[in-house]
Write the structure tokens for this entry.
Amino acid sequence: MKDTHKIRYIQAGELRIAASCEATENNMLEVYYPDSVLLYAQIGTLHIVIDDKEHLVPRGHFAILRKYSLAKLYKTWTKEEGMAKTYGFGLKNDFIKKVIHKISMPKRVVKISERVVDVPKTALLENLLDYLIAHIDEHREITEEEVEQKTLQALRGIAKGNQNLLCVFYEYSNKELANIEKLMEHNFLLNIPLPSLAEISGRSLSTFHRDFKKIFNDTPKRWVTKQRLHYAQQLMETKALRPSQVYLESGFEDLSHFSRAFKKRFKLTPSEFYDIISKS
């Protein structure tokens, strides 16, 4: 199977906070992000489809996608461009709330209904993007303090372009109840501690466990492990990746733990499974 997307991430502790994605085919990807995301189209045009409405982010432009938006993303580009490349910067609720009080808000805060909003380009936003690109290309992590500082810089840059857009970030940072089924099915590869996952979903830990059980008839830990193992199996089958390449992409941090879990689930070690499919 041809790999038509190349994704790189940078982390703050255990949390992925920014990513770049290169595409050489305009395949559609369905997403349901747990955080609002500041998006930038460096090459080509990013298409965001929500409820059959399409929003375009042209080359060189920014937009913010609201958290818990079930969206379909795809990219197009010209023959001269030859590919598309986008960047995303996750804006966590607590960071937005913490830094937004350091900026003068408009006197009248307007309620925002749109799920995608264009953001004007400013020098501060371009500086943020240059910083993220450097970290992504060098595969470097950044600290939560740096995330907070960069979020503040981004919001200040946006406020300089259009102060009313601060209302968007204020609105987008409000607590909401996520659709647990969509949240889990689109984000099970992320290594988010269970208490944080419950908080992201807008629920207490006990309520999250209860609602999760109603939907999946399983515990979060067992369900996530099953999904990651099936994803690893799929990667070996479709991309011919070896177990040593697959376990990290599947959300496992330890190869031996991945191997034990895989054998318990499929009655074969990952190496045995890989040998069988590579000979077929």
